[in-house]
Amino acid sequence: MSEFLRPLAELRLRHSSKWRRYAPDVLPMHVAEMDYEIAPQIQELLIDFIQRSDLGYLGPIPEVADAFVGFAERHWGWTPDPKQIRIATDVSVGTVEILRALTKPGDRVLINSPVYAAFYVWLKEVGCQIADVPLIPDLETWRLDIAGIEKAFQDGVKFYLLCSPHNPMGRVHERHELEAIAELALKYGVVVISDEIHAPLTYEAGAFVPYLGVSDAARETGVVVTAASKSFNLAGLKASIFVTQSATMASRIAQVPPDTHWRSSILGGFAMACAFRECDDWLTQANAANRANRDLLTKLVSERLPGVPYWVAQGGYLAWLDLSSLNIGDNPAARILEEQRVSLVPGTDLGADYPQYVRINFAASAEAIERTVEAIASYLPAS
Ligand SMILES: Cc1ncc(COP(=O)(O)O)c(C=O)c1O
After folding, report:
1. DSSP letter, residue 382
2. Could you give the CA distance from residue 233 to residue 231 in angstroms, rounded to a whole number?
3. DSSP string across 144-174
4. 235 lines ligand 1 (CB under 6 A)
5. Which atom number of ligand 1 is nearest to the Cα of residue 90?
6. Which end of the chain is more exposed for a tag (fewer CB within 10 A), N or C?
7. pLDDT digits (tens, 9 = 90+) for 13-72
8. Chain centroid to CA 232: how far?
9. Which atom of ligand 1 is nearest to the CA of 115?
10. Between vectors from CA 370 to CA 365 and to CA 374, what angle results, nearest 5°?
């Protein structure tokens, strides 16, 4: 098997957005791609498809539902209904099409800031208004504000775009929180679109709870959108799934055009099936690497960035830091990019109220993580 983490000089030859957005001297720590090699089984599958010129349109692919059901059973003890699993181009397109089918322009959709930047883009694209009930931070993590969510439902919000686990701070919502949301959603007639794309990256076995696995109320109110793209590093291949588990939600989701399947890619579809079916070993390796990087970042932040609030991720490869105490100006990420040549995601991409925050992608080498922390530490007041 090839090296899991390639040297920086080689990574710079990649053609993805991560490596092309900024000048070649910039260390890219922004977009959520991992610097790891993809699973050998997926490499072989893709090479095989290409060598046989098997690059036509995506047709029936029962392999995806079978593989996802097996994955969900093995990892989360959840058995989805394979007949209620449908394909879309990616999680973005799947979610936008679900919103388009269920909402009308002007409808309010609940989100919990700070949250994945594209949530704002998707809601704007479908003409919906944002109803924000921010997460509440404490020293350990950022938690869902269940009372605030109920208030929003009481005020008439009928759609909820839940990020589970939560991007940017890698918060894995707890079963009791999801149960409470499901009960409230049922009570107030709210549809919950649960974006679970980061779920396979949860470090602790059993910690992640799929929304549709929590209760009948969740199954009556929820649709899960997910993919192998984030957790198996396949974002460019373009394939995702959306999943319901009740007659009520299946009939509502039936309004999503069947062409979302046709508009995804044959390579993405079969790579996703392969990832969910036979790449558990690779995922274990990726999660161990991410967890070790998380521990390194935690250590470096405590040693080198005193006074910088930071929350220890429970999964994934994203970290959320509050740089207010460093006085880096109105847009710390822009200044760090310009002066230190390290690209981070500015907090305002994840919510207007977070201008002093940055998001770091730590699925990278120890050297890259160290350089990133040093770039931020260069703004510490001289002691
Ligand atoms: C929460 C979340 N949803 C969706 C996506 C994008 O998924 P896709 O590339 O399948 O559209 C991301 C990418 O980072 C994400 O963090």
Report:
1. P
2. 6
3. --HHHHHHHHHTT--EEEEESSBTTTTB---
4. yes
5. 10
6. C
7. 999 999 999 999 999 999 999 999 999 999 999 999 999 999 999 999 999 999 999 999
8. 12
9. 1
10. 150
